[in-house]
Amino acid sequence: MTLFLSYLINGISLGSIYAIIALGYTMVYGIARMLNFAHGDVIMVGAYICFCATQYLGLPAVVGVLVAMVACTALGVTIERLAYRPLRQAASLAVLITAIGMSYLLQNLALLIWGPNPKSFASVVSIGSISLFDGALLISGETIVTVLANIVIMVALTQFTGRTKMGKAMRAVSEDRGAAELMGINVNHTIALTFAIGSALAAIAGALLCSSYPTLQPTTGSMPGIKAFTAAVFGGIGSIPGAMIGGVLLGVIEILGRAYVSTELGDAFVFAVLIVVLLVKPTGLLGKKVSEKV
Amino acid sequence: MSLLKVEDMHVYYGNIHAIKGVSFEVNEGEIVTLIGANGAGKSTTLNTVAGLLKPRAGQVTFNGQNIVGMPASKVVSLGMALCPEGRRVFQQMTVRENLEMGGFTRPAGEIAGSLDHVFKLFPRLKEREKQVAGTLSGGEQQMLAMGRALMGRPKLLMLDEPSMGLAPKLVDQIFDIIAELHAAGTTILLVEQNALMALQVASRGYVLETGRITLADDADKLLVNDSVRAAYLGG
Question: ipTM value of the model?
Answer without folding.
Answer: 0.91
